Amino acid sequence: MHVDVATESARLESSLGAVECVASPSGAELFAGRRVLFTLSKNNKLSWIQDWIRYHRDNHGADALLLYDNGSTDYDVHALAQAIAEVGGLKASAIVEWPFKYGPLGGGDRPWDSDFCQSGMLEHARWRFLARARSALNCDIDELVVGPGSIFAAAESSPLGAITCQGHWLYGISGGGLDTPPQERARHRDYFVAEKPNMQFGVIPKHPNSCRRKWAVAPARCPERAQWRTHRFAGWFARNVPSLFYSFRHLHPINTNWWYGRDRVLTFDPDRHCIDGKFKACLDAVAWDE
Questions:
Q1: Which of 42, 88, 199, 288 could hold 70 in an S-S bridge, CB 3.0 to 4.6 Å?
Q2: Neighbouring C-beta atoms of residue 25, cutoff 10 Å
């Protein structure tokens, strides 16, 4: 259902009955002009959330945070807010309690999907909080964006007003003097060994552990009828233009194992693995304790 942006209330009627829906107050002023990092999170370690913010602050210029908490049980919203407040450099932040069930996944690029929790969160974030943001980056706590500069600035200056980027997985490593810690002590900064890419036509790298895209957008330039999705935009040409310059690293052990075990460790093989120099430089640029 599409309603005008200025709508204050709506009445929904069906065979089950009728309900009056009143729009919540706008939170757009809080994030006006900001470069906003936003995500949906459940029970991610507070130290992981802090490190994820610090990385995108120092490498991309994120100066605001919008976090939807999906019913965390390991800590309450007050502890979460305190952890976020300990991170320097944020000009604005908000936590939205979002205790809804995720819903069955359609998966892939199927034309339908039922992950109501995240689909609803993305539209809620767009219209209630991010309509006046300078730009916004959608990625998970275990995902860190890599590029030649700020992905926020790239989205703002893009002809389309958006950047989509491909990712690839990084795993725990054993051997080669590059041992990573056990998962219970994992931190983002520990993972910088990647599988060597296969080179197509001798010049185009194709990573063997690729994962689906994430994106950054200048909300004011996104068509009103387009829809924000987890890995793409629906109804907007920008979904078809992946960046040649921006990508992200998906850190396999930075996870609570809520879906499947993510404690896999690979034995270092110099013929197969290498230090991801570009990503390592980004990690080294972070003030992890500030």
A1: 42
A2: 7
Domain residue spans of the chain: 9-284
Q: Contact at 8 Å (CB) between 191 and 249?
A: yes
256-289: per-residue pLDDT in tens?
A: 987 767 888 999 999 999 999 999 999 999 999 9
Alpha-carbon distance of 180 to 133, in angstroms, equals: 38
DSSP string, 139-205: --TTEEEE-SS-HHHHHHHSTTSEEEEEEEEE-EEESTT-PPPPGGG--GGG--EEEPPEEETTTEE
> What is the helix, strand, coil percentage profile of the chain, to 5?
25, 30, 45
Q: Tell me the CATH number of domain 9-284, given options 3.90.550, 3.40.50, 3.30.750, 2.20.25.
A: 3.90.550
Per-residue pLDDT tens for 142-198?
A: 999 999 999 999 999 999 999 999 999 999 999 999 999 999 999 999 999 999 988
